[in-house]
TrEMBL record:
Keywords: Endonuclease, Hydrolase, Nuclease. The lineage of its organism: Bacteria, Pseudomonadati, Verrucomicrobiota, Verrucomicrobiia, Verrucomicrobiales. It comes from Rubritalea squalenifaciens DSM 18772. Coiled coil: none annotated. Residues 172-291 form the Endoribonuclease YicC-like C-terminal domain. This is TIGR00255 family protein. Its cofactor is a divalent metal cation. Belongs to the YicC/YloC family.
Length: 291
């Protein structure tokens, strides 16, 4: 079981490039990857996103990438020799036409756009991939490792709360039979106090008690709760993404407790249901961070 929050950072250097990657993730119902990298390399985004989603199925993952040059990288200075030559020829032509010598200077060259330009993003995509993807792989591995550690902590906390829920269910199971017995005793007492001459073994009395017992029976709910708890533990022990499955189980467990509460007709049972639902809500809060 993994958490959906984590962080990883890594760098990888080649002869000409140093790629640095930071990967962080937060809660999301679906898998989402947001990539931040220089615009000139934007066409790499689909490859990066696909690479990340091979390791992460849920959560919003932010990938921040920086590309730095080494001393051996191609020069970022680009010179348009043809444009410079055209400028020089224009000066010579003008000098001839006006009969006055004109000399081209460095200032003249710098004033003309694009004769000399600095292109920091003139590296080929193959060179970028060579440095980027090893760094990305390491950063994602560290991210997953942190998500796994947090998942282990979530698992321990969740198991403790499931044990608490099982204790409440055991208390409910122990208390449930006394509800019908108390109803029967109260019914007998009210009949005696009313002065009605009705035999306590009368079919009508027995039928009333039987209807009440059937209405209050929570055997099916208790059985399903035990089944849900067993399934919960099974999901917690797997490495597959189980966040949605656990969230669904929490809804089912909550439904069973609601049914028990509506059938309770007993203050102590109602208290156990309230405690159980409070503990279950804490479980659901934790599950929202599970992948």
């Amino acid at each position: 079981m993994k958490s959906m929050t984590g962080f990883g950072r890594a760098s990888h250097a080649t002869d000409s490039i140093v790629a640095s990657v930071e990967a962080s993730s937060v809660n999301r119902k679906q898998g989402e990857v947001v990539v931040q990298l220089p615009r000139s390399y934007a066409e790499l985004e689909p490859e990066i996103r696909k690479h990340v989603l091979e390791s992460v199925s849920r959560g919003r993952v932010n990938i921040s990438i920086s590309i730095d040059r080494t001393e051996n990288s191609p020069s970022p200075i680009q010179i348009d020799t043809a444009r410079a030559k055209a400028l020089s020829d224009a000066f010579k032509t003008l000098s001839h036409d006006i009969g006055h010598p004109l000399e081209i200077t460095s200032s003249d060259i710098l004033r003309v756009p694009d004769i000399i330009r600095f292109d920091e993003d003139n590296l080929s995509l193959d060179l970028i991939r060579e440095a980027l993807f090893p760094a990305l792989q390491e950063a994602v591995e560290k991210l997953v490792e942190m998500r796994t550690r947090e998942g282990d902590d979530l698992k321990k906390d969740t198991l403790t709360r499931i044990e608490t829920l099982e204790q409440e269910v055991a208390a409910i199971t122990e208390r449930a039979p006394s509800v019908v017995k108390r109803y029967r005793d109260n019914l007998h007492m009210r009949l005696r106090e009313s002065g009605l001459e009705i035999d306590l073994a009368d079919d009508r009395v027995l039928k009333e008690i039987g209807i009440f017992a059937e209405r209050c029976d929570i055997t099916e709910e208790i059985t399903r709760l035990h089944s849900h708890f067993a399934k919960f533990r099974e999901y917690l022990d797997t490495n597959a993404p189980v966040g949605r499955s656990l969230d669904f189980l929490c809804q089912e467990i909550n439904r069973e407790f609601n049914t028990i509460g509506s059938k309770a007709n007993d203050a102590q049972l109602a208290q156990h249901v309230v405690k159980s639902k409070t503990e279950l809500e804490k479980v659901r809060e934790q599950i929202q961070n599970v992948e």
